[in-house]
């Protein structure tokens, strides 16, 4: 999907809510598969505090679980945005990802969604939202994409 | 008008296409996620836990083989042994807690478990809940510590042997029982004939010998005086507080205290717990229930053909 002159940049609050919807969907479809393993990895939570769960030794299966969840989250956003121009959360708020250049490519959607695999990466990436026009994250600038709101009228 | 219809059709197609893409992506990530979780679980099952305590259940009468039905649960020594072995082999498990709620049961099954616990390289804590008596106490005595509630039922160091004597019933209905045997004691414990005084004496000797071994094991396991243990080994059960006075129990408490004891013995700073229970699927439940009743029926039919109908329990 190529951006056009009259596209209105999506407001931050809508993008934030769309993100919340998406991570909830990922939680249901991806993370639920790992509940059994997580329970084993973190033991019985009733027997200890979340703090002790957090400082649990990082074992290979925990690393692998985190990696798989990150890759699947990346695939969810990248495939949907590449195929439809929007994820499920964005559909709800009528937001679209558009390319500044030619038709939106899969590499562009991959690059713009990499920070969503880790919350700390997303926070750093989102700091740029305040600096760039069109509310662009850092990776959105690199991938030459931005998000537009199809419901907003001038 | 025509263009409106076409545009409506196009919108419908776009929506259908969107739906297919969304469902495909969700199904795809779910399948990959599920498969990955299974693969990681199989490949790294043992490494999933950090230093932990294992809780192994010993619930219901102790038997060699398991008999679990809707209303009756028995702790089979085979499945309990397999759970203890799993906990022993797992390098991340630093101590074992036996969650005991059993009135005892088969002599060999109890002794078998007692030996395995005694030989354990990892610290073992026996946590007696409602009841941990007779054979179950035999097992508990091999642990490094015994935790019980003030009112738990424990002790009952004794052996019983029983069988139903049908000889009077046969006589009443004028039915005679005939059996040819080679060996004068082959009929010992046959429920269709009365016990002779000599047979009674033979059986009593065997039971006394089992009791002797039981007492000896408790003396060794608990480091108690043999005369003192012999004195309290009347088969009487003791409440937790009485058992504590007699040296049969170390600590009063429940799960929390048992975990603390195990944590202390294993020098663990964190408290992670993994529970080993008998795995039961719905199919397993139905097959076991059916098998139990079929087996029960067959067993009652074959009762007269058994070596002996006497059930010896500790």
Structure description:
The complex is a heterodimer of chains A (about 150) and B (about 325). Helix content of chain A is about 55%, strand content about 5%. Chain A is mainly alpha-helical and about 150 residues long. Chain A has a two-stranded antiparallel ribbon with strand order 1-2. In chain A, helix 4 (about 60-85) packs across helix 6. The longest helix of chain A is centred in the middle third of the chain and has 25 residues, at about 60-85. In chain B, the strands form 3 sheets. In chain B, strands 1, 4, 5, 6, 7, 9, 10 and 11 form an 8-stranded mixed beta sheet that branches. Chain B has a two-stranded parallel ribbon with strand order 2-3. In chain B, helix 3 (about 105-120) runs parallel beside helix 4. Chain B contains 10 helices and 12 strands. In chain B, about 30% of the residues are buried. Helix content of chain B is about 50%, strand content about 15%. Chain B is α/β, with parallel strands linked by helices and about 325 residues long.
CATH topology assignment of chain B: 2-enoyl-CoA Hydratase, Chain A, domain 1
Helicity range of chain A? 40-55%
Query: How many structural domains are formed by the residues of chain A?
Result: 1
Overall shape of chain A: it is elongated
- What is the CA-atom radius of gyration of chain B, in angstroms? 28 Å
What percentage of amino acids of chain A are in beta strands? Answer: 5-15%
Q: Please name the CATH architecture of chain B.
A: Alpha-Beta Complex
**What's the CATH class of chain B, please?**
Alpha Beta
**Intertermini distance of chain B:** 91 Å
Contiguous runs where pLDDT drops below 50 for at least 5 residues of chain A: 44-57
Q: Helix and strand succession of chain B?
A: HEEEHEHEHEEEHHHEHEHEHE
Number of helices of chain A: 8
- Percent range of helical residues of chain B: 40-55%
Could you spell the SSE succession of chain A in H and E letters?
HHHHHEHHHE
